[in-house]
């Protein structure tokens, strides 16, 4: 878990949550967040990420453990006294109030003076580039505009933290991407601290300072986006973040952090050691589709396996190829869509290759792999 207490702003210490006193929805959750960070809680549905957010907001009680902000405990503090802004998927704007009135509301309940409210609302309307929309009602705005107003309302009283629970889930792809840029722009400009919940891995990778990957109430890895993608901690993270190929292998041997393992059919694979140990009889080898090379020119690499072509999917800027290995595994390869993209007929044989540094060997634990059954 987090590496250091330096610059610690928000801390979860051994936080647990159960609703029935039997099953833990969140298990011994520990996380340190620095002021000004954009931290995303990422995971499949039911993994515990929204429960953590609700405990931080005060909408759910903590079963055990502590949450502190600037060293002060907040688990017994009423939600309205935690100075936290929230942005939801459904906007939660007052439909009978204008945009300006919606923005004024959190300032009025904090007894700010009228002239200050007017200036602050004008400032935030300019920040979200809706200066001419203050007199409109939420029903007269587009989805993207409503979400920008919801974001401004969460920020306008200058909260200690801003919590966002799937805020872009109701938007189409184009609007979603525009709002990702809008949120990151405001975050950089204003420097507020964000705790963001999503199950969208691309959204998490593009927006976050650090990401906590959840599975079954446990953080599997807490790291920067590039570290999660390039150096996953286990098979779950490797398969959940981005596209990935997971190839079962056996008899792993470890030397100088390099694992040598055998595939059914006789091929031997060399990989960086993810979390294997010498007691393992089986492992999972993880390799990203873009790291694979379709061997049509005899190029020598650390790993070379025979493969049979299955299908080709044209995606526009890249092409995805599917192959079958002798052990029955299916493997995907991504290549740029250019004049050098190879062409195959169904069933054609070829050789796939990749470098040992570009793949990882992990413990073979199907319970930790999305979509797999134990």
What would you say this structure looks like, in words?
With 374 residues, the chain is α+β, with helices and mostly antiparallel strands. It folds into two domains: 8-230, Rossmann fold; 243-366, OB fold (Dihydrolipoamide Acetyltransferase, E2P). The chain is 22% helix and 35% strand. The protein has eight helices and 20 strands. A six-stranded mixed sheet has the order 6-7-8-3-9-10, with helices on both faces. It has a five-stranded mixed beta barrel with strand order 11-12-13-20-14. Strand 1 and strand 2 (24-34) form a beta hairpin. Residues 366-374 have low confidence and may be disordered.
CATH topology of the largest domain: Rossmann fold
The end-to-end span amounts to 26 Å
Rg over CA atoms, rounded to whole Å, is 24 Å
At the first level of CATH, the class of the largest domain is Alpha Beta
Strands side by side in the biggest sheet: 6-7-8-3-9-10
Write the element-wise H/E pattern from the N-terminal end onward: EEEHEEEHHHEHEHEEHHEEEEEEEEEE
Unreliable stretches (pLDDT < 50, length at least 5) are 366-374
Question: What class, by secondary structure content?
Answer: alpha+beta
Strand content: 25-35%
In the CATH hierarchy, the architecture of the largest domain is 3-Layer(aba) Sandwich
> How many separate structural domains?
2
Principal-axis shape equals globular
Give the % helix. Answer: 10-25%
Tell me how many strands there are.
20
The main β sheet shows up as: 6 strands, mixed
- Our count of helices gives 8
């Amino acid at each position: 878990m987090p590496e250091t207490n330096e610059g610690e702003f928000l801390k979860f210490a051994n936080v647990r949550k159960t609703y029935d006193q039997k099953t833990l929805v969140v298990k011994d959750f520990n996380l340190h967040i620095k002021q000004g960070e954009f931290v995303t809680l990422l995971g499949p549905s039911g993994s515990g990420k929204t429960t953590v957010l609700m405990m931080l907001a005060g909408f759910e009680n903590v079963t055990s453990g502590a949450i502190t902000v600037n060293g002060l405990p907040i688990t017994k503090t009423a939600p309205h006294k935690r100075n936290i802004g929230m942005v939801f998927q459904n906007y939660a704007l007052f439909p009978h109030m204008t945009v300006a009135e919606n923005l004024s509301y959190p300032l009025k309940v904090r007894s700010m003076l009228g002239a200050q409210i007017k200036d602050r609302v004008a400032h935030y309307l300019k920040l979200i580039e809706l200066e001419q929309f203050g007199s409109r009602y939420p029903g007269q705005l587009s989805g993207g505009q409503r979400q920008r107003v919801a974001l401004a309302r969460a920020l306008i009283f200058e909260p200690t933290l801003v919590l966002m629970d799937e805020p872009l889930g109701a938007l189409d792809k184009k609007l979603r991407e525009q709002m990702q840029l809008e949120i990151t722009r405001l975050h950089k400009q204003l420097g507020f601290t964000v705790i963001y919940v999503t199950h969208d891995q691309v959204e998490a990778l593009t927006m976050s300072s650090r990401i906590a990957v959840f599975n079954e109430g446990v953080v599997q890895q807490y790291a920067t986006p590039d570290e999660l993608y390039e150096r996953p901690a286990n098979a779950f993270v490797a398969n959940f973040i981005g596209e990935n190929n997971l190839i079962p292998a056996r008899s792993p041997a470890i030397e100088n952090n390099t694992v040598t393992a055998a595939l059914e059919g006789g091929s031997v694979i060399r990989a960086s050691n993810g979390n294997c140990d010498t007691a393992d009889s089986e492992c999972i080898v993880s390799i990203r589709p873009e790291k694979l090379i379709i061997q049509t020119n005899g190029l020598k690499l650390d790993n070379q396996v025979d493969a049979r072509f299955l299908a080709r999917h044209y995606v526009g800027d890249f092409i995805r190829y599917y192959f079958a290995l002798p052990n029955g595994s299916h493997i995907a390869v991504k290549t740029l869509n250019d004049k050098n993209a190879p062409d195959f007929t169904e069933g054609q044989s070829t050789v796939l290759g990749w470098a040992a540094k570009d793949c990882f060997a992990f413990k073979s634990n199907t319970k930790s792999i999305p979509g797999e059954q134990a």
